[in-house]
Please model this.
Amino acid sequence: MPDARQQLQLAILKKRVKNVSDNTADQQMSCMEVWGGNTSTDSFMDRPGLSCRVWSQSFGTGDAGGDVYYLSSCASGRLTRFLLADVCGHGESAAEGAKALRELMRRNINRIRQTQLVQAVNRELVVADMAGRFATALIGTWFAPTSEIVLSNAGHPIPLLYKASTSEWSTCGSKLRKRVAMQNMPLGIDERTGYTEHRVKLQPGDLLLCYTDALSESQDSSGNYVQTTGLVDILQSLNGVSPNDLIERLLERLESASPGNLGRDDVTIMLFEATTRRVPLADSLLAPWRFLQNLFVDRVKTTGPRHPSTTDNSNSSPSSCHSRKQAFDRFVAGEVSV
Model:
């Protein structure tokens, strides 16, 4: 009977063999989930060179919703990946789809090229065929040694960037949302969709605000949608507010503009701030052990079926989401709200 150490070595060997056979054309890295979910939360994460606050409120009285947030880090902490997604529908009716999307992200997180990661998640979401549901998503990779973040946008609201050197807010990666056939469409519509990347260099004090469409679809006092430009104006008027208080002040401003704002959908914000924190020496020294530990845990978690099973959506309203064809038509027309 092999002891625990031999069992671990055997599990690692089997994992390596499986990676070689299944991914011969695709290089891999080893990342571990730091934190993620689709429930209401107000949490703070600190990674080398980048801090992140996640604020999420699910629609209605349920604790779970269709907004998905996800953070992962490589073994040494030099590389951090994140996902912010909005599954078609809201509240409990979209919760199961959100869980499935998070699992797909976890299963594909180790792909080195971010575009391959997004394409793989998209293909598997199409195969999963979750009652025709689709999801907009923003996926990013932060590389601490170069202070650079790479963004891929699958039909999601455009993130907003604050540059500390100029004290100005602006849109970030607007070209990622350019209407090009079979490119940057929401996840789960067509497996042939391609995705592009946008690279941004961040300096200490710079902020990146990622959000779901409950913010951009809020209304002003005249009943008009705030949209991305309106959010930029609001944030610019909040210059001087500490990053620790920025989310609350932004939400207060939106709620005061119109009574129904932020109450019609799931609401999620991820606020990133570039910092001067370096990779601790202990993390670098412990990286090999974390790498092996992650391989063992991943082996245990992946013994189930390859694709998430289709869940019972009998409680979902037929009008709560659209078919893929309708989703594609709406995306081309610029109506990507989910």
About this structure: The chain has a mean pLDDT of 77. The domain at 32-331 is CATH 3.60.40.10 (Phosphatase 2c; domain 1). DSSP finds eight helices and twelve strands in the chain. The longest strand covers residues 64-74.
